[in-house]
Each structure stands twice: as structure tokens, then as C-alpha cells.
Amino acid sequence: PTTAPPAPTADAASVASLFSDAYTDLTGTTWNPSWGQTTVVADTTIAGNTVKRYSSFNYSGIEPAATINGSAMTYFTLDYWTSDATALLVKLVDYGSDDTWGADNIEVEISNEPVTSTWGTLSISIADFVAAGLTTSSNIGQIVLSATGATNPVFLDNIFFRITPTAPTDAPAAP
Predict the structure, then answer these.
(1) 59-104 pLDDT tens trace
(2) Around Cβ 175, how many Cβ atoms within 10 Å?
(3) Which of 170, 171, 165 is nearest to 11 (CA)?
């Protein structure tokens, strides 16, 4: 791509950012941990904006320094650019009640059909992960990303969890 993705517009107070120029990122996040994948992840700059470049993208992980309470969030969001991927997949891994990697982990993956050769946005409802079998989302310790059919690099930016404010249910006071 020659242009940066559009800047996200979610209120910073409602965001738990993993990677974005628009928000303050959580500290200590591990990118592309050594899980045996061929993916190479590097930061690169496009039109003055830092993005993640995923080459040989079969799968890759994101491990926050501390688990994220996904039950307090409503969406997982990321911007992407691909010239040829036929699917982008996002897996949330909840570490369960003991809040550590182990036998009680629960993981659910959702596949998305991307647009190609332009910036697109995946905004996946946490409720969609729950409907697909994520029985708890209060201790998210890993996010696993993968691409199907990507022979060229995939670029990612603005990777974050967010809360969508709800409209007030009370009627305004009478004048």
C-alpha cells in the first residue's frame, strides 16, 4: 500500500490498544512469539504511519503482558491491507479461571473474507466469539492471526479491543 489506513475514531478511553499510532498501546506485548510459524513480522512506515508487515504469513501470535478482560469489551478491531489473501482469521485464547496458559484454555477462531488491494477493517463482536464457543472472555492471553492464500505480505494496523458506548435508556428530564 502507498497510503496509511484511516485513523480510528473510537474514544481512547474505551480502547485497549495492542498496536496503533492513534492510541497508547499496552506495554510489554510480544509480537510473533516463537510457535514454529514461518511468519516474519516487522514494523514498517507507510505514509508516515507505522504498521506491522506480515511476510510468509501462515499464522502469528500476539501475547499481551497481562491478560485482557474481553468481557468488558464489545469488539476486537484491526485494519488490514492484502493483495491476495482469501481469508483473514482471528483466534482469541482465554486462559480460563486460573488466568495462566494451561488445560483450561478456551480458544475460538473466526474467519473473515477480506477486501483486497485497499485498506479494510475487521471489527468482530466479542459476542460473535462467545456465540462460536468462547465460554469465557475475561482472561484473554493470546490473539492468533492467520491468513489463507496470502503469497504477498499482509499489513496490519490499529489492533485493539474496544467498548461501544450504549445509548442511554432513561428519558431526559422534563424541562
Answers:
(1) 999 999 999 999 999 999 999 999 999 999 999 999 998 999 999 9
(2) 3
(3) 165
What dihedral do alpha carbons 88, 89, 92, 93 form, nearest 10°?
-130
CB 88, CB 68: distance < 8 Å: no
3-state helix, strand, coil in the chain (%, to 5): 5, 40, 50
Structural contact between residues 94 and 139, judged by C-beta atoms closer than 8 angstroms = yes
From residue 42, give the alpha-carbon distance in Å to each of 61, 126, 149: 13, 28, 20
Confidence at residue 116, expressed as pLDDT on a 0 to 100 scale? 97
The alpha carbon dihedral of 130, 85, 122, 27 has a sign of: positive
Q: Which residue has the cell 482471528?
A: 90
Which region holds residue 158: left if phi is over 0, alpha if psi is between -120 and 50, else beta?
left
Task: Convert the pLDDT of each residue in 131-155 to its tens digit.
Answer: 999 999 999 999 999 999 999 999 9
- Quick one: cell of 155? 499489513
DSSP codes, 52-94: EEEES-SEEEEE-SS-B-GGG-SEEEEEEE-SS-SEEEEEEEE
